[in-house]
Amino acid sequence: QVQLVQSGGGLVQAGDSLRLSCAASEPIHDIGEMDWFRGKDEQFVARFTWAAGDAFYAPSVKGRFTVFRDNDKNTVYLQMNDLKPEDTAIYYCAVRRDHSLSYDYRGQGTQVTVSS
């Protein structure tokens, strides 16, 4: 059973940076995209499309957050710069494989807390 293991959350001050990681326990075939979202209402944060290598961002994080992957480590990262208190949330990663209508795998979530 594939697992997505997240790490990298923490408590920082406004303006600081954090890097979240989402590592697959084994290679996942036919990945369509990997998404990052946050909070109980699953607010979309960023998307990395696997084949094209394109990234998309929510307007609230565009220009501050960057999503990228490390193929050798089966890992996708979310680099978060210039963090704001409103970025405080539990962040989740999730993978949707090609031809799937919903997420196939989800990470366990990691807490990000930004103090003012």
Q: How would you summarize this macromolecular structure in one to three sentences?
A:
With 116 residues, this protein is mainly β.
What does this structure look like?
With 116 residues, the chain is mainly β. The protein has no helices and eleven strands. The chain has strands spanning 4-7, 10-13, 18-24, 31-38, 43-49, 55-57, 65-70, 75-80, 89-97, 105-106, 110-115. The radius of gyration is 13 Å and the shape is globular.
**What is the N-to-C order of secondary-structure elements (H for helix, E for strand)?**
EEEEEEEEEEE
Average pLDDT, to the nearest integer? 95
Give the radius of gyration.
13 Å
| N→C terminal distance | 40 Å
| Count of strand segments | 11
Classify the secondary structure makeup into a structural class: mainly beta
Q: Which range best describes the helical content: under 10%, 10-25%, 25-40%, 40-55%, 55-70% or over 70%?
A: under 10%
- Ranges where pLDDT stays below 50 over 5 or more residues in a row are none
Main sheet summary: 7 strands, mixed
By DSSP (H or I, 4+ residues per run), the number of helices equals 0
Broad shape: globular
Strand content: over 45%
Topology:
Blueprint: E1 4-7, E2 10-13, E3 18-24, E4 31-38, E5 43-49, E6 55-57, E7 65-70, E8 75-80, E9 89-97, E10 105-106, E11 110-115
Parallel strand pairs: 2-11
Antiparallel strand pairs: 1-3, 3-8, 4-5, 4-9, 5-6, 7-8, 9-10, 9-11
Considering the chains and any ligands shown, give keywords for the structure.
0% helix, mainly beta, single chain, 116 residues, four-stranded antiparallel sheet
